[in-house]
């Protein structure tokens, strides 16, 4: 019985890990840049389709066809940089230097926007500054994950608990 529970837990964790990595492992667009913990730089003559960064910052001097997104990092768009989609930063700031062009929306949660007067944003500009948004965006999912892990541990303990027969 105990080995069956361990096997089920291992299978569930492996399946969850594969599901999380499937987008990165099986992505068919080689021009996307996704990093965890390492900064991303798009050079002046480069063209990239999407840029996503977890726990790091993004620096763009060239052209991004799609969206630019950071979680726990900042975005710096330097002179003549172009973004064809949205620019979003969760827990970091966005800086637009010079004649930067953003065709989509600019959204910052828990950070600041530093925008040069020569920059152009075609969509909406939203800034939800302050620590409340960071706690809401990052803290709530982490609390829910902790509750899920506690539920799994409790279920395993219930299944593994020895059965004591009732005597009358």
Summarize the structure.
The chain is built from 2 helices and 16 strands. The chain has helices at 2-25, 131-160; strands spanning 32-36, 40-42, 47-48, 50-54, 58-60, 63-64, 68-71, 75-77, 82-83, 87-90, 94-96, 101-102, 106-109, 113-115, 120-121, 125-128. A 6-stranded parallel sheet has the order 1-4-7-10-13-16. The chain has a 5-stranded parallel sheet with strand order 2-5-8-11-14, with no helix packed on it.
Strand content: 25-35%
Q: Describe the biggest sheet?
A: 6 strands, parallel
N- to C-terminal distance: 27 Å
Major beta sheet, strand line-up: 1-4-7-10-13-16
- Along the chain, the helix and strand elements come as HEEEEEEEEEEEEEEEEH
Helix fraction, binned, reads 25-40%
**Overall form:** elongated
Mean pLDDT: 83
Tally of structural domains = 2
Count of separate DSSP helical elements: 2
Low-confidence stretches: 25-29
Structure description:
The chain is α/β, with parallel strands linked by helices. It has 2 domains: 28-129, no CATH class; 138-162. The chain is 32% helix and 30% strand. It contains 2 helices and 16 strands. The relative contact order is 0.10. Mean pLDDT is 83; it is low at 25-29.
């Amino acid at each position: 019985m105990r080995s069956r529970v361990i096997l089920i837990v291992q299978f569930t964790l492996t399946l969850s890990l594969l599901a999380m990595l499937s987008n990165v492992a099986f992505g068919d667009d080689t021009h996307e840049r996704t990093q965890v913990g390492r900064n991303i730089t798009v050079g002046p003559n480069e063209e990239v389709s999407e840029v996503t960064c977890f726990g790091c910052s993004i620096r763009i001097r060239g052209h991004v066809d799609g969206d630019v997104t950071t979680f726990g990092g900042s975005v710096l768009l330097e002179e003549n940089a172009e973004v064809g989609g949205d620019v979003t930063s969760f827990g970091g700031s966005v800086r637009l230097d010079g004649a930067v062009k953003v065709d989509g929306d600019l959204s910052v949660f828990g950070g600041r926007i530093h925008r040069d007067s020569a920059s152009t944003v075609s969509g909406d500009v939203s800034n939800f500054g302050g620590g409340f948004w960071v706690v809401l965006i990052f803290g709530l999912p982490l609390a829910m994950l902790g509750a899920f892990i506690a539920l799994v541990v409790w279920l395993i303990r219930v299944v593994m608990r020895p059965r004591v027969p009732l005597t009358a």
